[in-house]
Every structure is written in C-alpha cells, then in structure tokens.
Amino acid sequence: TEKQYNEAVAYIDAASQFLPGTGISRAEKMLELLGHPESGLKIIHVAGSNGKGSVCAYMERILMENGYTTGMFVSPHLKEERERIQVNGEPVCKEDFVRAFSEVKAVQDRLGKDSLAYFDFYFGMALLIFLRRKVDFCIIETGLGGRLDATNAVRNPLISIIATISLEHTAVLGDTIEKIASEKAGIIKPGVPVVFLKRDDQSFGVISGVAENNGSEAFGVSQEDYAVIKNCGKRIDFSLSNGYYKNDCFSISTGAVYQVQNCALALTAAAVMEKQGYIRLSEEPAHAAVSAVCWQGRMEEILPFVYVDGAHNPEGIDALIKSVPFIAGNRRRILMFSAVNDKDYDKMIKRLCECGEFDEFVVTQIEGRRKLGDTQIYKIFDKYTGQPVTDYKDVCKAFDGACELRRKSDGVLFCTGSLYLVGEIKKYAENRQ
What we know:
Blueprint lengths: L1 H12 L9 H11 L9 E5 L4 H14 L4 E4 L11 E3 L2 E2 L2 H18 L6 H16 L3 E5 L17 E4 L7 H4 L3 H8 L9 E4 L5 H11 L4 E4 L4 E6 L4 E5 L7 E5 L5 H18 L7 H10 L7 E4 L2 E4 L4 H15 L4 E5 L7 H10 L5 E4 L10 H11 L4 E3 L3 H15 L2 E5 L2 H14 L1
Parallel strand pairs: 1-5, 1-6, 2-5, 6-7, 7-8, 13-17, 14-15, 14-17, 15-16
Antiparallel strand pairs: 2-3, 3-4, 9-10, 10-11, 12-13
Helix pairs in contact: 1-4, 3-9, 3-10, 4-5, 7-8, 11-12, 12-13
C-alpha cells in the first residue's frame, strides 16, 4: 500500500494545475463517469478569499460534537496530501486514498490524456471516499473562485457559505471586489440558503442580489453580531447575538482575532441548518466544539512562542497584524516571510513593514513551481523598512536563524506569507524535534 500510495501521489503531482476549459466542466464529465457520487451526499459548500478553511474546520467540529459523522475536503495540504480528504477530523487512510485514486484515474484514461487537473483528482477522490464511508455530512471547500470551480459541479448542496472576500487571483477572478464577489456567489443554488460574511463593501449587494435571483434565503453575519470580551493571546472569549443566538458566549483556542468572525459564520450556518431541519444542535456540544478547534497553519503555535500563519494576501496580512499585539505582548517580534509569485506580495510586504509591529525580518524562498526568489523578496523589504532584514535561500536555515533570533531576544516569531511556507516549516520543525 505504501508503494501504491507514493505512486498515486507522484502521478497527481505530475498533473497540470491548469488546463483548457473550466474546472466545473471537467468535474461534470468526471462525476458522470464516476456514477455521480455527489448525489448520495449531504454537502455543505464553502467559498471565500480568506477564512474558508477555518470555517470548514469549525463546521466539522460542531457537527462531530453533536454526534454526526463528517467528511471534509480542503486545500492545500500542509505536510501530506491525505490532509485534503478527512473523515471525522482525520486524514483518510492510504488504502482508501489508493482505491479512490484508481477509480478517478480510470476516468481520466477514458476521457483521454490531460483531461483532469491536479485539483480535479482530489475532488473526485474525496466524493468517492465520503460516499463509501457513509458520512452524514461533507464539507467541501472551493479551490479557486466558485462559479467555475470544480466543486461547483455539486448541484444540490444543503447550504452555501461565503467567508471573507478580498482582491485575489485578479487575473482569473476579476480586478474588483464586485467581480470577485460575483464569482464566489456563483456557488449559490436555487432555493438553497446561503450564509455569508456581511461586510460594508460592494460584496454585500452582489451576494444579496444573486441570492434573491435564485430564491435563496440569505443570512448575513456582520461585525455588529459579535464582540470580543477578552483576548489573552491564547484564547478569545466572544459573544454572538443575531437571529439565532442571544448574546451567547463562546471561547476559541487562539489569539487570532480573525477567527472570531469565522467561528461566528460557522455557528450561524449550523443554526440555519437546524432551522431547515437538517440537524439537531445541543448547546453544550456547540460550545465544546468551537473551543476544541485548532486549525493547523492559522496562527498555530508549533513551538513555544513560534507561530505559523498562512496569510497569503493583503487582507490576510492585515488580519495577522491585528492579532500580533495580543499574542506577543511586550516581547520582541521577529517575522519570517516568503510568498508565491502570483500573489500581491509587494503590498503584503509594504503593510508588514509599515505597521510598526515587527522588530526584525527574515526572508526566504519556498520550493515549487510558483516560488518567489528570496533576493527579490529581500529587495522589497529593504525598500520599505529600516529594520534589520536577513536573507536565506533555504527555508530550513531561515527557520533555524529566525528561531535563534527569537531565543536570544526572548521574543516571539511569526512565520507567514504562504501556506506552502507553513507546510515546509511544520515538516521541518517536526523532524527536528
């Protein structure tokens, strides 16, 4: 099985990230040849620019604590490919992975060479595994956008959820908030309720309009619905008050303030599902569920005073910056950074340098086809800051150097800029330990 698993991973890794046509058109052909596994599943569909993975994690735990079995499909993985497909909070076993891969590969063989992209393989495999494992509910995270994403081949989800929307993948999704919101809102289906993060920007009108045109009830979660009571750096207590909660207090195990809105979104979506008659919720399990969630790679403390956060666009960086004072307190703050070449890294670096929250920077270069050179990153930091900047080409050496700076100053280290960087650091840190 180990050999078959490694061969399957290598085969998928060799697949193209992008192919002619759209993800949804490829997925429709794939699902038809697989016998439409999605038709036998109860699906929660989640989109957004930031926070959708965290929303999935909160939804998964809420359902599990209330006695339901779950499947969850998310991306990217951090350490191992199986993380993308989880059943009851655990990555699928290698036997299930290999079996599902062989079925999806057989579909590609029928459709012809390069008929399926990298993401398509995992999506098809996830649905097959969830159906075979007979999960009660599965939570599906979009890959890119929504309207044309492979996951949008699912025609009858129980509910749609849209997290934070920001300018990202502008070459593909559009160069305005309205255009990107329209792509994300493309997951809304006729008559299917949608829960979304209600922001004071152009996205609200777009999502509301698409929901109205589809005859779908829309439930917006705004900043007025929740309030932070206390943030001690490792735990946040907050209250939630909307049509489903009346100043109910919850605790989450993180100092990342952005997780409050993600948790509130998941709690509201679960309450909407209960109203629709899909689930039954108990108060104590819901509180225990959100308190237990620690979504890896999102302000995750992997070593004492060493945090990794997958902020990969300017809005994600802004969210990280707001959390730093609560987590670091008066300690010296070191930031380690790398990014991929198709993100707005100049704006991300500018905000990190100008926020005044960091005392020293370490930059490096991640692996992969989308890597951004460490020298280029260094030059941008040097342009925007007068603080010390150290450049390492190798991620492992950069992490060791940043940890040494943290140790000498008794400070706090934050590693950010890309989930790929987070994955490399987590694997190295675990091996080093």
